[in-house]
From TrEMBL:
PANTHER family: BLL4334 PROTEIN, DUF1697 DOMAIN-CONTAINING PROTEIN
InterPro entries: DUF1697
Signal peptide location: none
Listed name of the protein: DUF1697 domain-containing protein
Domain of life where this protein originates: Bacteria
Gene3D superfamilies assigned: SP0830-like domains
Length: 175
């Protein structure tokens, strides 16, 4: 069994695509995953499962589509994946508030000639190792919307988590 973090894209944000965490826990347990826990109310879970991350994500996406009647993208990451994202964060030395330091994962590959979201704020946005890191010292709502930029310019959806959530997920992933 492998411990995984499960990140649902775009649920429980601004009242859209509501997924109750109790229902998510039940759904994941019904799929046969073990050590299931949810974190916060923004579509985060940890679990233990057999099989590769992509297969686990596909099973969860199919079950969510069946239950909620809409596509909800799911990213499944190992502890090593999360730790690598944390270790590579190039802005953590200047950041002083974990709720304003973001990591965005991509659901696809950007076009080779695509403009970089770092152009929006080169001192506070870095693209590295297929991830996008952003520091939002004035708050997320007062910073460039990197996810919208990537959806429009790259045609690739993202899911992001702040540093505090990343640390909670790392602590909660089953061994």
């Amino acid at each position: 069994m492998t411990g995984y973090a499960v990140l649902l894209r775009g649920v429980n944000v601004g009242g859209n695509r509501k997924v109750a965490m109790a229902e998510l826990r039940e759904l994941l347990a019904d799929l046969g995953f073990t050590q299931v826990k949810t974190l916060l109310q923004s579509g985060n879970a940890v679990l233990a499962a057999d099989g590769p991350a992509a297969a686990v994500a596909a099973r969860i996406e199919a079950a969510l589509a069946e239950r909620y009647g809409t596509e909800i993208r799911v990213l499944v990451l190992t502890r090593a994946d999360l730790q690598a994202a944390a270790d590579a964060h190039p802005l953590r030395e200047i950041a002083d508030n974990g709720s304003r330091m973001l990591v965005l994962w991509l659901f696809g590959t950007p076009p080779a000639d695509a403009p970089s979201p770092a152009e929006l704020d080169p001192e506070r946005i870095v693209v590295r190792n297929g991830l996008i890191y952003q520091w939002c010292p004035d708050g997320i709502s007062n910073s460039p919307d990197v996810a919208a930029f990537v959806r429009k310019a790259w045609k690739v959806p993202t899911t992001g988590r702040n540093w505090n959530t990343l640390e909670k997920l790392l602590q909660a992933i089953p061994d």
